[in-house]
Amino acid sequence: MDARFTAEQDEIRRTLRELLHKRCGPEELRAAVDTPAGHDPALWTALAEQLGLPGLALPEDYGGAGCSVTELALACEETGRALAPSPLLATAVLTAPLLLALGTDAQRADLLPRIASGALTAALAVPGPALATALGLTGHDPSGEWAGGGRAGGVQARQADGGWRLYGQVDQVLDGHSARLLVVAAHTGGFARSRVLLFLVRGAAAGLTRVRQTALDATRGQARLQLRHVEAELLGHGGDDVLAALARLGDTAAACLAAEAVGAAGRVLERTVEYVGQREQFGRPIGSFQAVKHRLADVYVQVQAARSAAYYAAWATAQGERVGGLALAQALQALRGAGAEGIQSHGGIGVTWEHDVHLYFKRAAGDELLFGPVHRLRAHAADLAHVFEEAG
Fold first, then answer.
1. 278 pLDDT exceeds 80?
2. How many CB atoms lie within 10 A of CB 379?
3. Which of 37, 149, 286, 288 is the most exposed place for a label (fewest CB within 10 A)?
4. Which residues form the Acyl-CoA dehydrogenase/oxidase C-terminal domain (predicted)?
5. CATH number of the domain at 7-120, please?
6. What is the pTM of this model?
């Protein structure tokens, strides 16, 4: 195995970093998160038209670039460095792979080219605070109880008027307030014969109410969805194993999220090292003190280890290995540590809302709430590897 990046992969990283440096600085970031969409539509258009980012991992037959998870993860690493608010995670990482894997020929032909062009944004709606469980990152639920269990709660799907109607509520939908297409997980069949299916809901559907929520991490827009007799289209033919498809998606999503966290951790460490080289105390830069050096050296080791794990996970996912959750745990821990040390090292000037370093710490905390926590990611990875089972 050759672990070096190709010239094309290096070019993706370089070009994306340059674009984000020009278009997503601190002022642009803060302005974008305060808009109703929670991101800059002009930046998203540039990412789509100049770099083809939404279709990076989609087949060329559907207007994509035909790249692998590795290229998508490298792109996420760069967006993580800038904490760039965009529909990339919700659309290209969490939703497009499901459309590709489960959609009918007509659905793929209709939706994927528009996603690849950036014209269509999408979001995955999983009932309750159970996204990590649904993706198989922190546990295994073969019954799909997280979707409502066939009882009251969650989202229920019923056949009516020759089609499907959805009822229920979904909280914490990433980019759910602005996405033009929603992929909603719902239970059907009642309590006795319940099963989880995925449904397509248009963003302007009658009976759908979307409210943007206040989130710990303002760079990740979230919404609450209320569905009241909402018309929906079944994704695929209904005979596919939705739970297995979501678990496969979890490996890809974890690799991309790990790379994104590594990008953020590396950037906040860079900013902290730069600051301690300038801040003086007792007539010398505080970065020259041995205690500060040791603390930041520990962070550097954590970030580099997490980067290696994220890169391996991106490669291994294409080989069918399930290591994404473990890489994500390593990356989130590194980001939390880098963010905490950044705040500590900047403490002499008083970290306020106006300073950017707190945004990185909130990204770590927010991602742990959505996709973790770290100890559960590791525990589930250990279960998958049968680490703690006694030899029979």
1. yes
2. 17
3. 288
4. 255-375
5. 1.10.540.10
6. 0.94
C-alpha span between 16 and 374 (Å, rounded)? 29
Peptide bond preceding 26: is omega within 30 degrees of 0, i.e. cis? no
**pLDDT interval class at 351 (50, 70, 90):** low
Parallel/antiparallel/unpaired status of strands 195-202 and 222-234: antiparallel
CA distance 246 to 135: 5
Mean pLDDT of 167-183: 95
pLDDT value for 392: 47
The residue length of the chain stands at 392
Tokens found for residue 199: 């449904």
On the CB side of 256, how many CA atoms lie within 13 Å of its CA?
23
Residue 229 has pLDDT above 90, yes or no: yes
CATH topology for 124-240 is Butyryl-CoA Dehydrogenase, subunit A; domain 2 (2.40.110)
Interatomic CA distance for residues 326 and 15, integer angstroms: 29
Closest CA to 309 of 259, 269, 243, 267: 259
The reply to whether CATH 1.20.140.10 applies to domain 243-384 is yes
Q: Choose among 360, 371, 163, 132: nearest CA to 267.
A: 360
